Amino acid sequence: MKDLLKAIDIRVSRRVYSEKPLSSEHIDLINKEIEELNRVSGLSFSLHTNAFSMFDGFRKSYGLLKNVRNVVVLAGDATDSNLYEKLGYYGEILVLKLTLMGLGTCWVSGSFDKNDEIFKTLDTSLVVFGVITVGHIDKELSFREKAIHNLSHIKTKKERDLYTAENPSEKFLEGIKALAKAPTANNSLNFHVLEKDGEISMTVPKETSNNLCNLGIGKLHFEIGSDLGKFKFGSGGILDYK
Ligand SMILES: Cc1cc2nc3c(=O)[nH]c(=O)nc-3n(C[C@H](O)[C@H](O)[C@H](O)COP(=O)(O)O)c2cc1C
Fold first, then answer.
1. Residue 222, pLDDT above cutoff 70
2. What is the DSSP string of 130-147?
3. Tens digits of residue pLDDT in 44-86
4. Is the N end or the C end of the chain the one with fewer CB atoms within 10 Å?
C-alpha cells in the first residue's frame, strides 16, 4: 500500500478528458485490478468504455465533466451492511492505482445520468452508488477544471480541523496529512479522527451514502499515511494496530 502514498500526493479530480481511447493494455490492467478488488470486497465494480452519453449535455452533468468515455460503475449487493463505506475504501484504492497509471479520475455520485443504458445492463439485484470516470488527460488542468477546483476548495478544511488528539504521534499526523488530501463529496472532508488513550477511531456526522463513502475513502487515506493499522467498519470504527 505504501506506493499509493505517492498517488495520494498527486491526485486531483480530473473532469476534462482527451478523446484518446484507453489502449487494450490499459483496459486489461484496469479489469485485472477490478477483478481483484471485487474478489476481496464482494463488491461489483465494472469498467465501461462506451459511456459517451452518461455526461452528455449540460443537463446531465451540470456542465462539470467533458469528453467522458470510460467509467467504472460502483455497485454492490443491497444486503451488504457496509456497502457505501466499502465502495469508498475499495473505489479509492482503484482511483489511486489509476493515478499511478497516469490516468485522470473523478468520483461522481451526483452529476450523471442515472437512466443511462449502461445501468440497464447490470444485474438488477445490485445497488448503484455512482461512477468513477477515468481516461487520458492533459498534464495541466484546463481553465474549466481550475475554475471548478478553485470553487470547490474555497473553504477547504485544514488538517487541524480533522482530528482531536491529546498527544498525536508523528505517524498519526502523517495519517492526518494523507486524510486532508482525500476526495470527498462536495469537498466536505466531513470525517473526524479521535485519538484517546491510544485508541484511534474515525466518524462521519450522518450516515448518508455520500458520507459513508467519504468515510471509506478517509479511512484508506489515514491507513496509508500513518502505516499504523486498519480500521474496523462503521462510523466510530476503531483502528486495529498492526
Ligand atoms: C463520494 C463522492 C462523490 C462525488 N460526486 C461528485 C459529482 O457528482 N460531481 C463532481 O463533479 N464531483 C464529484 N466528486 C468530486 C469532489 O467534488 C472532489 O473530490 C472534491 O471537490 C475535492 O477535490 P479533489 O478531488 O480535486 O481533491 C465527488 C467525490 C466523492 C468522494
1. yes
2. EEEEEE---SSPPHHHHH
3. 999 999 999 998 765 666 678 999 999 999 999 999 999 999 9
4. C
Residue 133 corresponds to which cell in the numbers above? 470516470
State whether the beta carbon of 184 lies less than 6 angstroms from ligand 1: yes
Q: pLDDT tens digits for 118-155? A: 999 999 999 999 999 999 999 999 999 999 999 999 98
231 Cα: distance to centroid of ligand 1 (angstroms): 23
Pocket test residue of 186, 188, 214 for ligand 1, highest count of atoms within 8 A of CB: 186
Q: Which three cell numbers stand for residue 128?
A: 448503484
Residue with the smallest CA separation from ligand 1 atom 6 is 108
**Quick one: 4-145 is in which CATH superfamily?**
NADH Oxidase (3.40.109.10)
What's the pLDDT tens digit per position in 160-198? 999 999 989 999 999 999 999 999 999 999 999 999 999
| Ligand 1 neighbourhood includes 188 CB (under 6 angstroms) | no
* Domains 4-145 and 159-241 fall in the same CATH topology: yes
| Domain 159-241 in CATH 3.40.630 | no
pTM of the predicted protein model: 0.97
CA distance 165 to 172: 9
| 167 alpha carbon – ligand 1 mean position (Å) | 32
Ligand 1 centroid from CA 82, angstroms: 21
Q: So where are the chain's domains? A: 4-145, 159-241
